[in-house]
Amino acid sequence: MFDALILGGGAAGLACAIQAAKRGLSVCVLERNEVFGKKIRATGNGRCNVSHIDMQPFHYHGAGHDFVNPALQACSETVLADFFATLGMPLTALEDGRVFPHSLQAKTVVHALTKGAQEAGAELVSNAYCKHVEKETDGFTATLFDNRTVRAKKCVLATGGASMKKSGSDGNGYALAERFSHTVKDTFPGIVALHLQGRIHKELDGVKIPSKLTLTIDGQKIREDRGDILFTSYGLSGPPVLQQSRHVLWALKNGRTPALSLCLLREDWMHTEKLYAFFKAHKSTAGDALRLLLHDRIPGPFLRDIGLKENVPLASLQHRDLQKLIAALRSWTFLPNGSRPLEHAQVTCGGVDTDEIHAETMESKRVPGLYCIGELLDVDGDCGGYNLHWAFASGILCAKAL
User: Fold this and answer.
1) Rounded CA gap, 340 and 378, in Å?
2) Are 377 and 63 in contact (CB under 8 A)?
3) Angle in degrees, CA 111, 117, 123, rounded to 5
4) Model's pTM, two decimal places?
């Protein structure tokens, strides 16, 4: 019988295994895939954004800040850097504050974690997909789909969420938690591209522009993000869209009305007088003038969307039409109505209710000796390394309590 059985060989599970094994505990990690850290390998476009220099609780959603605080305090960005340094892997922070392995390769992170776990004495078992776990008098027994069994005094659920299904995160952990009477809050995609109402975006499929994206819910401004926006056949993608997707989908789930507004102008063209002078100086059509300011595929669909003709002479536009044109350039608004499915999302929102978990240890309040860590919990972070940091932090915190 092991001291600790960890179900899931991803970021949370491996971090927990390393720290627990270093404490002298006998640890077994069961991973359903043939290889460990499959989802890590796909993170950050293969570069693996492991953390951020601005590690504050307000970057996390789902659970309240009181829940994430103990893990973030126990495993700050500095502590995480020291953790990886002990595994021989240096980290580096880029200009935007995101933290990566110095190699800028995700496989470096997987190698460091798996090698670190093995050297600490943890037993890593691949192709081990858990069917169910039973609580017994002296511990837990996990039964695999091939009918193998593993017994341990304590059990850690580190199975991940239901995003990026190809990585092995199929939501099985939710069923395991529910067998122990845990509540699983409704799950939905996070850090995911969004679908839009209408058809204008279809005409712009493949167009990418730098922009400020503003999210409002029921008319109230929620947040602004800057970066490249990509029009797609289904809607919008790009870093600002991914960053705001969680809030959009939460609003839709709760019967609210989210709206996304793109600013098509660069900062030095935001002044009303400059825009009026530009349009007054051009004797051409509205479409021809806008092609001097915007991506050449945007003017046609943009003008139709705001009720103006592409070939209308600028000189014939009334003052109210120019006002409408300038306002739309500053804030071209779209209505989202959904997102790409969970398998295309980077993280799962929702999960095991954190009210049923001790924040200081990650131990279940319902079943002594059972622990839940990482994405399985109702905790999701912003883009920028926050979700991987949570996985590492919750795993390391949990290991101290095993």
Assistant:
1) 20
2) yes
3) 120
4) 0.94
**Which residues, in sequence order, are CB contacts of 134 under 8 Å at separation 6+?**
140, 141, 143
Strands (E), 168-299: 184-190, 194-196, 208-217, 220-231, 235-237, 258-263
Structure tokens at 132: 């169910």
Q: H helices of 137-189, where?
A: 172-179
**Number of continuous H segments (helices) and E segments (strands) in the chain:** 13, 21
Task: Name the residue type at position 392.
Answer: F
| Single-letter amino acid, residue 101 | P
Round to whole Å and give the CA distance between 196 and 301.
Answer: 15
Q: Are 159 and 150 in contact (CB under 8 A)?
A: no
- pLDDT tens per residue, the chain (402 residues)? 999 999 999 999 999 999 999 999 999 999 999 999 999 988 877 899 999 999 999 999 998 889 999 999 999 999 999 999 999 999 999 988 999 999 999 999 999 999 999 999 999 999 999 999 999 999 999 999 999 999 999 999 999 998 877 766 778 999 999 999 999 999 999 999 999 999 999 999 999 999 999 999 999 999 999 999 999 999 999 999 999 999 999 999 999 999 999 999 988 888 888 888 888 888 899 999 999 999 999 999 999 999 999 999 988 989 899 999 999 999 999 999 999 999 899 999 999 999 999 999 999 999 999 999 999 999 999 999 999 999 999 999 999 999
Lookup result for tokens 């600028």: 314
Nearest CA to 252 out of 185, 166, 206, 194 is that of 194
From residue 248, give the alpha-carbon distance in Å to each of 201, 223, 287, 366.
Answer: 18, 11, 32, 33
**HEC sequence for 26-72:** CEEEECCCCCCCHHHHCHHHHCCCCEECCCCHHHEEECCHHHHHHHH
